[in-house]
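Structure tokens please, single chain.
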Amino acid sequence: MVESKTWVLARHFEGFPEDSNFELKLEQQPEPKDGEVLLEALFLSVDPYMRPFSRLRVKEGGVMIGTQVAKVIQSNNSAFPIGCHVVGRCGWRTHTVSDGTGLTHLLSDWPQEVPMSLALGAIGMPGLTALYGLEEVLGLQAGDTLLVNAAAGAVGSTVGQIAKIKGCRVVGSTGSDAKVAYLKELGFDEAFNYKTVSSLEEVLKTASPDGYHCFFENVGGPFSSVAIPQMKEFGRIALCGGISTYNDTTPQTGPYPHLTMIFKQLKMEGFLVGRWEHKNQEALRRLMAWKREGKLQCREHVTEGFENMPAAFMGMLQGDNIGKAIVKV
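Here you go.
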């Protein structure tokens, strides 16, 4: 038997997460049975969705949700031989016994020079979220002007780069001057620090006086209230996240954009990346091709040590990361 470290959700979050919400435990993983494999985590992801989804998917005392890149170290399943690498929703644990359900092989021709951790970032769920949000929800076209907030994060930074690949003008909002500089490196046409501008409305108007065809929304709250009136007629909004609201103990209220959306005939659509799971293999290969061609840069914010999972998670929610936040075991 193998001893596994796990982080459990000791109690559900009320407001911003605290150390006391988490508890590190040890559990014994049994020997894999016929059809099962034993996985050893190499990299674990921390993502904004974990904050709202944990209440829906984890009971108090249960293992915290999350995805990891893992190596098969024992196998009684011919589909997953010893030594292969997979992406799995195994939660915050160092070792997992799995029957293979929900495990996905890394691309068969994953290049040796590309870190496998990117399967949790631009060549994984965040990259797919960016791609499907742009193509399937927004129907992005060459020549469109796109606004994206949380633009230096895992999804936002990929959104902006794909939009540039597609011949669009991109405006990005982020939370520090260092992140603004990063967005400029990525080729964003305009980028600003929303925390230091005197007027969000004015900076949005200055960045695109004629308005925005598309808005990739990751933040919600007051930002949306200001951004939606800047949309062009028949503008499209992809509602991916609302990180500004995740830690609220009292729901935010108004102002409400209904008249603006009616008068401008805007379309807003919420989406979850799993809707297009049947397209993942083709989409991942496109993302990998852009990476290898130098068109897609993939910065990672790496925290060392499984014991630092909660700190990495809370840091990500506070915006400490530039690019994808991961934990290296």
